[in-house]
Amino acid sequence: MTTIALFLFGLAPLLEPVYGASCSESLTCVGTKYTLATCDIATKNCSCYTGYVPIHSGCGRQLQKPVINSSAPYSNEILPGKEAVLTCSSNDGATLFEWTKDGMIEKGSSASRYTIKADSIKESASFRCKAKASNDDFDSPQSEPLSMNLINGE
């Protein structure tokens, strides 16, 4: 009976709990295995347990910051006409990655390995990667930058 009265007066939507990660002053979060029942009014996200982050469907495990390694003989130097392979390593078992070169996303590069051709670098370039969840809800923090330097053969 109370639900019908609330619905008739337009108050029912204000009392419905939120199962996702978004909330507001008039909505409450539902506590789940990873989501706390509290709403962070500043961010309008349901609070998550430590090690988890808000995603559109609740809270997901925070991916750890990946590390970049280089196959170049001197780790960050590349000779003209040669190439080097960078590997983005994640302890989380991520299979999708995003690469950036000098702060710009490298489109079409979603594997853990990224090949750099020397002719794509003027003098030096800074590379970063981040691990991505398969459902595209959340990403890891970006790796520390790895600067690749073109060695002048003269």
Automatic annotation (TrEMBL):
UniProtKB keywords: Signal
Gene3D superfamilies: Immunoglobulins (2.60.40.10)
Span of domain Ig-like: 66-147
Signal peptide stretch: 1-20
Region of interest called Disordered, as start-end residue ranges on this chain: 133-154
Biased composition (Polar residues): 140-154
Name this protein carries in UniProt: Uncharacterized protein LOC106078220
